[in-house]
Amino acid sequence: MTLSDVQIERYSRQILLEEVGGTGQERLLGAKVLIIGIGGLGSPAALYLAAAGVGTLGLMDADSVDLSNLQRQVMHHTPDVGRDKVVCAAEKIHAMNPDVSVNTYTQWAVADTIRQVIRQYDFVIDGTDNFAAKFLINDACYFERKPLSHGGILRFDGQLMTILPGRSACYRCVFDAPPPADAVPSCAQAGVLGVLAGVIGTLQATEAIKTILGIGDLLTDCLLTYNALTMQVRKVSVNRNLRCRLCGDTPTLTSLVDHDQTVCDLKGAQS
Question: What count of Cα atoms within 13 Å lies in the side-chain half-sphere of residue 16?
Fold first, then answer.
C-alpha cells in the first residue's frame, strides 16, 4: 500500500512519530478492529480509531439511541434518538474519514454467531455493559486467538486490561464467572460520570493501535484502574491462572456458553 498525498497530510502528525512512520500508517490502514458495544466506551474508541486511519471497523450493537445515552455516548447526537446505534456511528465515521470502511452488525453478542464475526478482525474492543457479554467475548477471542481489550465503568471508577489469548491472563483468570443475577447495580441504577467513558474508551483504542503497530507496553497481565474523583491510577498485576476453566492447564470450558445477562459493575467485579 502506498500513501496518497492526501493521506500523508491527514495523518502527518502521526507519521512524524518514529514508532509509526509511513510503514506504520500503512499497517493501520490495512488493519481491522471490531468494537462490540457502541455506547460509552465504544463511541470514543471508534472515533479515535477512525481518526487514526484504522482501515476497517466492525461495529456490533443491537440497541437504539436513547436520550439518556447522550450524556456519555459521544458518537450519538440528539437527532439520533430512536435510531440504530451502529447506523448512526457508521455515518459519523464516514463523515470523519472516508478512508475507513465500516461493517455494521445490528445484533447482540451471542454464542451462535460471535466467533464467525470475531475471526474476521485483528483486534476486538469490548465496550459492553453486562457480564454475560464480557465473558462470552473473552471466551470467543480465546478460541479464535484474537487480542482483546476489556473495559468497564461505573460511577467514578473505570478499569481495563488487554488480553493476548494463550499468552496472557484472560478475563476468566481474574473474575472466573458472572455474578448472580441482581447481585450488582447497573449504571442506570448507580450512575456514571460521562467523561469517564471517554477516558477508558480512548485507552482501549490506544491498546488496539499499539497492538497493530507492535509498539509500547500493553496492559497485559495487569488490571488498570482509574478513579476520576481522586485521580488515582493503579496497575494491579494479575497472573495467568493455571486453574482457569478456559485457558488453564486442564480447561473445562471447550465451547461458548450464553450466560444469563447480568449487569456489569466494577465494585462487584473487583471485590
Answer: 5
Domain membership flag for residue 127:
yes
**Tally of domains within the chain:** 1
* pLDDT tens by residue, 232-245: 999 999 999 999 99
Question: What's residue 261's pLDDT?
Answer: 62
Kindly report the backbone phi and psi dihedral angles of residue 199, in degrees, each rounded to the nearest multiple of 5, phi listed first.
-65, -50
Instruction: Report how far residue 216's alpha carbon sits from residue 48's, in angstroms, rounded to the nearest whole number.
Output: 18
N- to C-terminal Cα separation, the chain: 48
Q: Output the nine-digit C-alpha cell for 103.
A: 461493517
Contact between 122 and 212 (Cβ < 8 Å):
yes
Query: Is the dihedral angle over the CA atoms 134, 139, 143, 147 positive or is it negative?
Result: positive
Residue of 266, 250, 230, 234 lying closest to 152 (CA atoms): 266
Examine residue 2 and state whether it is found in any structural domain, yes or no: no
The predicted-structure confidence for 4-27, as pLDDT tens digits, reads as follows: 999 999 999 999 999 999 999 999
Q: What is the CATH number of the domain that holds 69?
A: 3.40.50.720
Whole-angstrom distance, CA of residue 185 vs CA of residue 150: 19
In a domain, 186, yes or no: yes
pTM for the whole structure:
0.94
- Domain span at residue 163 reads 31-270
Residues forming a β-bridge with 32: 56
Phi, psi (degrees; rounded to nearest 5) at 20: -110, -75
Say if residues 192 and 159 touch (Cβ distance below 8 Å): no
9, part of any domain: no
**Which residue do the cell numbers 465451547 mark?**
255
Return the closest-CA partner of residue 178 out of 245, 268, 98, 99.
268
